[in-house]
Amino acid sequence: MDLGIRERVAVVTGATGGIGSAVARRFAEEGVRLALVGCRRDVTDIAREIRRSSDSELLLLRGDVAENEQARRIVDETISKFGRLDILVNNAGIGCKGAIGGLEEGQWDRTLSVNLSGAFFLSKLAVVPMLEQGWGRIINIGSLAAKNAGNARPWCRPESVQEVSGPAYAVSKAGLHCLTRCQAKEVAHLGVTVNAVAPGPIATAMNPELPGCMADVVPAGRMGTAEEVAYLVAFLASECASYITGEIVDINGGIWMD
Questions:
Q1: Helix, strand, coil shares of the chain as percentages rounded to 5?
Q2: Whole-number mean pLDDT of the chain?
Q3: What residues have CB less than 8 Å from 174, skipping those under 6 apart?
Q4: Catalytic one among 27, 82, 121, 169?
Q5: Is residue 231 annotated as part of the catalytic site, yes or no?
Q6: Which domain holds residue 125?
Q7: CATH number at residue 193
Q8: Residue 49 contacts by C-beta under 8 Å, 6 or more apart in sequence?
Q9: Which residues contact 189 (CB under 8 A, 6 or more apart)?
Q10: What percentage of the chain exceeds 90 in pLDDT?
Q11: pTM of this prediction?
C-alpha cells in the first residue's frame, strides 16, 4: 500500500526510545524526511542506522520539549532545513512509578511537563505551517495507562501497587488524549488531522517483559512490538487516514477494549 507520504517532513520526538526509533525507521522506509529529536540521549545512533538502509534526509536535534523555547527551536530549525513541516509525532515521554501517597512534587511536575506540556507546546507551534499548507498530521503517543488509571489492578495483587502503579504518568497521558481531541476539533476542517495511539504492554528497553501478574490477562498472550506501533503511526500519518481524526487508537493485544 502506498501511504502517500514520500518526501513529507516529519518531526519525531523521543527518537532514541523504542517506539520513537521504530517510528523513525518506518517513516524512513516510506521516504519521509525526518527531524529526529532526542533529549537525554544522542540521536546519532538511530540516524546512523537509518542511513545504512535509507537515503531519507535527516536533521538531528537535541532539545527538551518541556521547554517552550526549545520546542519553538525544534519547529523553526525543521522548517529552516526542509521548508515545511507535515507530520508531528509527539513521542517524547518519561515514566514515573509509585502510588499517589509516595509521589514527590518534583516527580509529578516533571512527568506532566514532558509528557503533556511538551506535546502541547510542539502541537501549538507545528500546526501553524500545517494550516498554511492545508495538510498536516499530528500523532500523539498516549497510553493504556490513561484508561486503566495508571495500574493493572485489579489484575495485580494489592501488595504490588507500588511497583505497578503510575498515577502521574497516567494523568499525563489522559491529558494528552484530551488534548488530542480538543485540537482535532479545532483544525479538522482545515486539512489537519490529530490522533493518538494508546499502546498497552510493548516490549522496549523501558518494559522488557510483561509483569507476571498481567501475563495471564493479555488475550494476545504476549507483549506488542515497537514496530507494530510504528506501522499504526505511519497509517495515521498517511493519505489513507485523512477521514480519521480525534481518535485514541488502542494497540494492546486486547487487554482493554472500548
A1: 45, 15, 40
A2: 91
A3: 146, 147
A4: 169
A5: no
A6: 9-94+119-142+180-214+223-251
A7: 3.40.50.720
A8: 21, 25
A9: none
A10: 76
A11: 0.94
